[in-house]
Amino acid sequence: MTGPGGRDMDGKSRTLRTGEYLVSRAARYLPPADREQRHQEWSAELPVILHDPAVRPAARRATRMLWFAADTLRGAAIARYTSAGQHAHRDADGKARDLVTRNGLTSLITLPVLLGLGVCLFYPGPSGGLTYDVAFLLVPVIIVLSSLVSREPLTLRSHWNLWGLLVFGTGQLLHDLAHRLGWGHPLLFTVVYYCGGAIFIAALGFAVANGLRSGYTHFRKVRP
Amino acid sequence: MKLTAPLERVLRAFLDDPAAPRYGYDLMKAAGLPSGTLYPLLSRLETRGLVTSAWETPQEEGQRPRRYYQLTGEGVRVARLELAQASAARRSAPGKVRRPAPGTAR
Known about the structure:
The structure holds 2 protein chains of 2 kinds.
Chain A: H1 14-27, H2 32-50, H3 58-90, H4 92-122, H5 130-150, H6 156-181, H7 186-222
Chain B: H1 5-15, E1 22-23, H2 24-31, H3 35-47, E2 51-55, E3 67-71, H4 73-92
Antiparallel strand pairs in B: 1-3, 2-3
Helix pairs in contact in B: 1-2, 1-4
């Protein structure tokens, strides 16, 4: 229940509550021993940012506070995936086992699927492009399942790529189904299809840019 | 500890007044870093014993206590050493266009 000015009955604004929600989500990524303290620390900064007299106008303060909370969530999520990856790599034998399991399992199942995709491009068969769509959707599902089996966590970027592929593939499948079955409004599925494609391409773009930057940094270090 | 650009900014922010306690938001503004970059960095510095943190005593009733950070003696020494080495490396880098550090251009 809210009072005047968008404040709830505790006197907190919606903006502040949104920021508190985001930092509480960020704290969940932390180890249990650190969670409560970090949550308190981040929550204490929010009203300070929201009432910083050096920042004007109020909308800018609110934006800065929300950006603080959202970026804290980003940093906590990345730190979790980074540390999880590091822990998985501490044990060299475990590392070798996990990579073999994940890569081996992924290759074993994905390769025939990719070959099937290639065949479907030239010969869709009686189901038309639907076989291709289903096969395309199987690729990210297989990668996720093999990651679960090997218990090696995927990076955050991999998650973006996979979700992009899933949304892209789902939109493509639904679009083709709608076209085949004569459903109304395949436009919705086309939008889903292109949104997924955009997510996937953006994540790939970041991956390529980071790879190029790392390569350039390495090249500068080793250049005599 | 590898001196990355964000780490360099944080250390410079601390060295502006090594004895002063700094809140996370103040460090963000001084170093020009987003919170998602700053807090993991502070956590790593604290783990290595270069920074300590403590909770302030609230001045008003109902006020949430804030956490502040401070360089340790070892942290001051390491920070000065690392920044001096970084500055020396930039000066000695051949063929580089030398830009003045922010705030020092005349």
